[in-house]
Fold each of these.
Amino acid sequence: MELTPMIDKSSFEPIYLQIYNYIQEEIIAGRIEADSKLPSIRRLAQYLNISRTPVALAYDQLLAEGYIKSKPRSGYFAENVESIARSNYNLKQNKVSPTGNYSPIHHFYHSYQNDAIKYDFGYGTIDLHHFPLAKWRKFMNRSLLPENSFHLLYGDIQGEIGLRKEIASYLHQNRGVRCSPDQIVIGAGTFHSLDLLFQLIQNRTTSIAVESSVHVGVKALLNKFPFQVEPLDLELDGINLNKLKKKEVQAIYLTPSYQFPYGMTLSINKRIKLLKYATENQFYIIENDYDGEFRYNNRPIPSLQSLDNNGRVIYLGTFSKSLTPSFRISYLVLPTDLLCLFHLGKHSYDQHASPIFQKTLQWFMESGDFERHMRKMRTLYQKKHAIITSRFSDIFEDKIEIVGAGAGLHIVIKVKNDMDELKLIDTAKQFGVNVYPTSIYKIENHQEQDNILLLGFGGLSETAIEEGLRLLKIAWFPNNP
Ligand SMILES: Cc1ncc(COP(=O)(O)O)c(C=O)c1O
C-alpha cells in the first residue's frame, strides 16, 4: 500500500503530526481497511522524501492509541476500528491497576496519631518550622484575587509556562540541566510524572534496567507496565555497569545523585560510561534527581542530564524535598523526540498539579524567595545531617556503621547486634522511636533479612535527633549503656 499524505513543510503543524492525522483519519473512514499492511517506516520516509524520524513518531503514536498494530518481522497493520472502540471500553472498565509488591510499611506515613511515638525518623517529612508561610501566603492570596480568577479553571496540560520558565532557569543554575521551558512537563509528584513517562516510552520499551533497590512508588509502576525489569547490583560508586552491558534494554532508571535508599553517588567515570553506552545503544536514562539540591560534604554533583549531548537523559525532579510534599508539584525534562510524543497524546493525559499552586510557586520563584529558602534550608539540613552522623558515631561507636550519608534528608545505617530489620524496628518502637526498613525497596525478594535501616532527619529538631538516638541505644544495646 502506498500512502500519500499532503505534507506541507511550511506548515506550523509538525510533519509527524500531519502523517499521524492523515493515517488516523484514513483508518477511521475505512479508506485504510482493517488488517491491511502499512508501508514500512523506511519506505514511507523514502516515498515522501523526508527523514525516518517523523514517520517513526507518527507510527509510535498510532500504535499507542491502538490505530495500528505491529507484527514481529511482518510490519505494521491497520486495526479494526470497531475493536479500537471495544478495547478503549475495556481499558476504562479495567481502570484499577495492580499495585504489585507495594508494601504498606511505608516511611512516608508519619505516625501522627500514635502518641506512644516520641521521635519519628520518618523520611517523607521536611522541617515545618522554617517553611516560609507568610511569603507563601502573600503569593497564594494574589492567585485568588478577582483579576487572577481564571486560574480557577483548567490549566495548560503541560504546566503553566511561567512556572516552566522558572524551573528551567533554576535547574540550569543549580543542577546544570540544559533545557528550554518547552521541554518541561509539570506533574503532580514524581510517580505521577514517571507514570506519564512510562506511557510515553512503553511502545518502544521491552526491557528496563533499574537499580536493585528502588522506591516503592517505582516498584508499583514497574508492576503496572509490561516491562521486563533487569535489576542492576549496587556498588559503592553506583550501579554495576558490567551487568548493564550484557543486557539489552531500552531504558534505565536510576537515582545518581543520592541512590534511594542506600545513598551512594554514581561516580563521574560511571556517568560518562553510562552516557556513552546509552548513546551507542540508543537507550534512555531516566534520572530521578529527587533531592540532588542537598549535598553536604562536597560540591553539588552536576546532573547526568548536564553531561548529555545526545538527548538520552530524561530528567525527573520534585519540589517535595526543596519546598514541601503537600503541593504535589514535580517535573519531567523530556528530550525532543519524547516531547513530540507527549504533544501527540497530551489530551489523553491529564494535568494534575493545581494551576493555583503552580502560579503561586512561579511568583515565589520569580521573587527570589525560593532561592533564599533553599539557601536557608541547605544550611539547616547540613547542620542536622552533621548532628545525626556525628552523634551516631559518638553514641554507638563501632556498633553501627553509617552506610549512606552526605546528601538528601535521610541516612542509612547498619546495626551490628543480633537483631534483624523487623526486630530492630519493633524494639525501637517499644522505646517510642520510629525507624524504617530498607528491604521493602529490593526489586528481588531475598529471603534473608537485613539489618540496614533508613532514618529521615529533615522533620526533627536537633534536640529530637539527639534524644531519639539515645533511646535507640538503650533499645538496641541494653547491656551497653
Ligand atoms: C526516590 C524518590 N523519588 C521521589 C520522591 C518524592 O516523591 P514525590 O515527588 O511524589 O513527593 C521520593 C521521596 O520523597 C523518593 O524517595
Amino acid sequence: MIGFVWAEDSAHNIGVDGHLPWSLPNDMKRFKELTTGNVIVMGRKTYESFPNGPLPNRLNIVISRDKNYQVQKPAILINHKDELFNHVDPDDKIMVIGGSTIFQLFKDDVDTLYVTKIHHDFAGDTKMTPLNYADFKLVEKKEGTTDEKNIYPYTFETYERSTNV
Ligand SMILES: NC(=O)c1ccc[n+]([C@@H]2O[C@H](COP(=O)([O-])OP(=O)(O)OC[C@H]3O[C@@H](n4cnc5c(N)ncnc54)[C@H](OP(=O)(O)O)[C@@H]3O)[C@@H](O)[C@H]2O)c1
C-alpha cells in the first residue's frame, strides 16, 4: 500500500524556503501516528529540512539523483524510484511524505491520500503536485481543533483510490 501524507494551505502551498510555512503541532502529531512503524519515502530537499536527521522508528528512504549523496544512518539513499522495492516488503505501508517532486513521481501509484487542509493563506514557494481527485473517494473527514498552539483552522481528510489508472 502506498499513501501520501502532507499538509497544504488554501492555495495548495506546502513549503517555503526549504521548510513548512506554518507551525501546527496537531498536524505533526497526526503525521507521527500515520508514519511511525512504516516506511517513509522523501526527496532529498525534504530530508534536509529535518533538523535532527532521519525520523526515529520508521524506515527513512531518501531519493536523490546524486549517487554520492550521504544520508545519516539508518536512512537509506536510492537514486531511482524502482530501487524502492529492493528495500521494502510487499506488505509494508509505504508513506510518501514529499516534497512536491516525489508526490509527482508516485502520483500514479498512490492508493491512499492523507491530507491536512489548512484553511489559511501562507507565503509559499512549493505547491502540492495536482492530483486527480475524481479518481479518489473521501472516506474520512475530521475538523481539527484549534488552541493557542494550533491557531489555524484545519481539516484532516483521507481519500482512497476508487478507479484504476
Ligand atoms: N507540507 C507538507 O506536507 C510538506 C511535505 C514535504 C515537504 N514539504 C516542503 O516542500 C519543500 C521541498 O519540496 P521539493 O519538491 O522542493 O523537494 P523534494 O521533493 O523534497 O526533493 C527534491 C529532490 O528530490 C530528488 N528527486 C526528485 N525527483 C527525483 C527522481 N525522479 N529521481 C531521483 N531523485 C529525484 C532530487 O534530489 P537531488 O537534487 O539531490 O538529485 C530533487 O532535487 C520544502 O519546503 C519542504 O518543507 C512540505
